[in-house]
Amino acid sequence: MPPSNLDNAFQSNAADFQAHEVFSDRDGEWAAVVDSVRNVWEAVSGPAFDIQDLEGPRRNVLVFYGVGGIGKTTLAQQIARRLGGDDVAMTHWAVPEPALPQTVPVYLDLAKSTTFELESVVLAIRAAISSRGHRAPAFDLALSRYWEANHPGESLEDYLRARTGLNRISSRLPEQVDEILGEVADNFELPGMVGGLVGQSLIALVKALRDRNDHARALRCRRLPTLLEAEPDLDALSYYPHLLAWDIAQLPPKQALLPVVLLDTFEDIAERGNRKNERLINRLVWLMPNVLFVVTGRNRLQWDDARLREKLWRTGAVRWPLLRSDVGEPRQHLVGYLSPHDREAFLAQRLTSDGRPMIPREHRRLIAARSEGLPLYLDMAASLFMELHQSEGAIPPVHAFDRDFAALVTATFRDLTPDEQSVVRAVSLLDSFSIELATAVAGLPRDGAAVCLVERPFVEFDESALWPYRLHKLVRSAIRNADFDADSRDPWSAADWRRAARRAFDAFGAQWGQAEGDRRVLVACLRAGLRLARDFSLPLGWLEDAAVDFARDSVVESIDLDEPEGAMSTDAAAAHALAVTLSVIARRNSDHRQRIVQELRAVLAVGDLPARMREIPEYYIAMCDRDLGNFDASMEGMRSVADRGGRLAPDARRGLHHLLRRLGRFRNALELAEQLGASGRQQRTLGELWWSQGNIALACTSLAVARDQASAAGLSGEAALCQSYLAFAAAFQDRARATVQVAQAHALIEGARVGWAEMLLQVAGLVVDAGHDADLPRRADDVAASATAIGLTSLAGYARLAACFHAAVLDSPQLNDRMRMRLRDCVRGAEFAYLIEIAYMFTGQDSPSRLRADWIEGADTARQRWSGLVADRRAELAATGRN
User: Fold this and answer.
1) 3-state secondary structure of 348
2) I need a surface site. Which of 281, 354, 449, 788 has the fewest CB within 10 A?
3) What backbone phi and psi angles, to 5 degrees, belong to 103?
4) Is the entire prediction scored with pTM above 0.85?
5) Kind and range of the H or E element at 738?
6) In what order do the strands lie in the sheet with 103-109?
7) 3-state SS class at 784
8) Where are the domains of the chain?
9) pLDDT per residue over 455-476, tens digit each?
10) What are phi and psi of 798, to 5 degrees?
11) CATH entry 1.20.1300 includes domain 667-879
12) Would you list the DSSP string of 508-523?
């Protein structure tokens, strides 16, 4: 029986009245566990399963993630108890039919330790296996070598006893390690090994294992000798789970089992900036495909994201297919608020009399619907039911609960100080907040009230968020909409709300101003500021400069606001129009350019944008027209923005340069580029120009300078774009250098999410692999198709050019003709005709087209450079024996 709630138990004189702590059954989550156990067991028990296969995809991770306080830890603990056969846990979930295979649960709370210890995680799994009487000879042999080197003078038994999480496991591990050492020493006649696996005893044992000595039958994991020879440090230990997985796989059928390792509070090691510890867990899980890992934490597991391959050991959807799937088990589950069934079950168990629910079914249904699954609401409703029942001496009418949550919020307000009331009203204006923001918006001189408020149960916490606190949405909407005049000691008038909104608006402006180009802060402040400006009819103010920063830094995060209600003032309409504009341009790398143009023209047609803000949609219309091949319209739009001399004029002048470059008017483009200056991104523009001349060294120098300038200015999107161009240019000349540059670009893009740059890196990958990958023409087709689908004509052309480079390196006339023919599909008159010229320059030829580019140093110099790059790549292939 769960423990009673003492506070409620002491509020009633009724002897038969009981108030209980309630664990929600979470039937859906338990069903996911059952299916996961069965599916993993079926996979590892099949004849095709090979424990020594380190390349196949992994399907052994079940994830439950959600906001703090939703019950993830309780869920993980109940799963462990249920799988361990605990009688109390049995009452929560029905016994599945047919019965589950034999499991060994291992619950690990990663928040319990002040520092992460891989040793404790690995030993907890091994100790749990040992507790069932099962040996693990391969693992234990490696463990003994590691222990001797890293824990001199400390016995394994003492180590296990000193760790709270391990001393609860009844384990024969120390005895089993001694047994395996003794058996190996006897079988291989290595008497000195009992004192430690070092020197000649180690050499002799490794030789015997590699010779497949008859006595080594239980140790025939083919990677065991390698691990025994390796330096016994933490890095080696991180590979030992492979041995343990191998040992588990060798158990006789009647003893076979499935370990289920529950990693709770996973966010404590999965830091978004430093993933060192997460990398170790990622490796451990990969090396143990015959173990089900249940991960619970605040955040979705990101191992399916291939962009993290530099930070983790194994990543990508191919390697972790179920982590990105919404079908099959095990996979990722968002642990939401209580389901309608669980809400009613909660209320039925919360208050009982003579073992029966005190709250009638009709009442429970209404309360459950009103709660939106928030356990706090259910608790408060149960308390209200008990209060009314005591005061009226009977079951209160159901309509007493057909009320807004505001009544309960008002009751909560009675427990708050006046300053805390001000803070909670103030933060109801915000999607999320920090203590600093809450204090500023409330207009208070000190943080004390905000510090106290965030400890309240209706405030949620997400440490990964920019501003980590937020009110539960039900509480927030109730505070915003309720009339507190009757009950509150300090009601706010409409003017009070507007003043708070103004303080919030100014606070977000200050946060943006202090962020020094932090893209995440920019987006968050724009979202919050635009909503406040629209809802409270505030002038745009700092939003104008922030919007230009958003437009200039290739931001793709959306600024979508909900639809406005009713008529808007001039200021409110301006804020809404600006939000729509920024949301549209943020989609430019995912939606087709033509749709972007149509939506931006619609914004201009409505006329709500202030004249000084119209340059943003006009500039992006010209950009999209350029990508769509509408050359004349793009040229006219860029000139119009440039001539007005606004904040985007330098960008428009750079846009004119791009158009000249597309036409092959390189000398004119160079003259214009030299006039751009830093505000016009001059160095990036020069880099884009010089690579087309085949001058890769000069292009890379300019692009590196441009990247460093952007990074210094806090323009993460621009820095990522420059780095991607650098990787693309370098790929023509130096494959090794380009590979490093591509990796650096991926790291920058991860934080910036620049869609155009991401696709440019795909093209860079094609150039890197030119001459090396026979499948490159098909890959180029895919990249070109993806680029064309969203109107990125230049990238489609670059992908086709990469395929021509590949054909030239292979010196295949037939492939050359075919790839050049596909490149011609990207040429529109003079636009991109220079790419055709380069495709012929690769093989030292003149283009048959009558269109000629105005090469900066002459066509002969350009041809010599491009054909030289092809010759260098051929020489590289010959040196490696691949040509």
Assistant:
1) helix
2) 354
3) -120, 155
4) no
5) helix 735-752
6) 103-109, 258-264, 292-297, 61-65, 332-334
7) helix
8) 6-24+338-403, 667-879
9) 765 788 888 889 999 987 777 8
10) -65, -40
11) no
12) HHHHHHHSTT-HHHHH
